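WARN no homologs supplied; continuing
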Amino acid sequence: MDADDFEKHGIEMVRYIAQYMRTLPQRSVTSDVEPGYMRNMLPSHAPIHAENFQDIMADVEKIIMPGVTHWQHPEFHAYFPAGNSFPSILGDMLSNAIGCVGFSWAASPACTELEILVLDWIGKLINLPSVFLHEGGQGGGVIQGSASECVLVTLLASRHAAIQLVKPYPYIDDGYVLSKLVAYSSKLAHSCVEKAGMIGLVKMRQLDVDENYSLRGYTLERAIEEDRRMGLIPFYVVATLGTTGCCSFDNVEELGEVCSKEGVWLHVDAAYAGNALICPEFQHLTKGVQNASSINFNPNKWMLVNFDCSLMWVRDRKALTSALTVDPVYLQHEHDDKELDFRHWGIPLSRRFRSLKLWFVLRCYGVEGLQKYIRRHVRLAKAFEEHVRNDDIFDVIGEVTMGLVCFRLKGPNTLTQRLLKKINSSHQLHMVPALVNENFVIRFAICAENADEKDISFAWKVITEAAECLMSSKSELERPGGLERIETLEMSETESEDEVFDRELFDTDLIFDQQRITLRRACERRNLFHRMVSDPKGFNRTVLKALSIDGQRKIRSESDLEDDAADAVRTTIKKTSAGAESSQDCV
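OK structure emitted
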């Protein structure tokens, strides 16, 4: 493909993308394909000869699109928004065309300098203390791939600093210090925090939250005191602004005071909700951030920038780079001492020109446009919350602050599980669950850029219709005698030993919490009894011992097992007979 072909097909692609976005509401929000569906639709080997572009695009619609979950669909309400906009797409297109690998200033000066500029722009926009900015501060901002990277990188930096503190004592091994390090987060923190602890080989304590699902300073302080008494070394804390489960907010002010007093690195993970900090009315949520060591949020979630784009600021760039700097000769350049090299700020060496799409979005929308977009999402979430609160069969879990509403059916968790399954299987909406303090909840996130009141009304209509159908089924089941079929089930002579109950006689999705537990225990007991009756030697300790070597079960041929079992049975009989004769002699 030469430049002329690219221009021709590029125009075709732009038209296809524009038409895709226009007609998204006409598509089903989720696919109904089965795992492995594509295997039989494409060749098992890569093409030897070049193929026609029109044929490739035909396969996009025929093969790719049927298996796509449409994250930009107006009825997509799962997870959090996946940032997307036409200016971002165009910015990424230009970045891909330039194709630079900006690991250092010398590798592409514009790549580094634009990143510095837009990180300072946004740092000022969300009212970060000046110490976090490149402009006159000792810290600065950088673009990472995801919030997971930000958490891992800051954990590694704080781990390095903790180990360096004991370096004056040469007899203390680094591995010994590592075994003593302990980090903290709330139990509602994102799973990436736990994963960072696993990768960093440190202990990670998940602390309880208060009645508002917030991690408080006194909880952290008590945990640190306990661990210090046990000889552990607290070194790192993650505070979350906008938890994944219910968009709750840890108390950054209290946590910051504790971390400052204890000399512990505080990282603020604001992956989703941090985008709303561009609106002044939400900036109170970062009160106390001056005591944090680092903070991140993802414009690729809620600021109309395509993935990947996670912004991270640190108050002391040396604390970060000292843990991550590796400087081979072939990467050094004459401006090393004057300019930043972002290869020292993260794990990857290679870096895309990601600041370009962020710059396009900021200039095309302006701050006012982005604020308007976020405020509309918050307003729509409040409208949905009102629907939920006005219906007596539902509960809202947590405070609705951003564009997320968590709700559940009153009653056992399985009611809400069944409701979510029913809704998602209809392919009219797509939502995902969370577990908040043992409550199974449905997360309703406002995701589409141009979401409006009609989308909220349609979603509520789908939800209430599914709930009414489910509740009528539950009422039927709970009528007198409704469980009689289950209670009178008998063993079938033809069933296998692992299928004690005929599960087609009832709908397991309509067996609720305690009933499901009771049924499962009954199944297990009857399965065990059935196997004992049909194969008693399998539960004879003497036989099991005869079939093992050094306490380890060793599977051999069927005839060997039968011979061993027979020998063991004969031995048991002889011992029993001998015991009986001895008893008679004693008498």
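The radius of gyration is 31 Å.
OK
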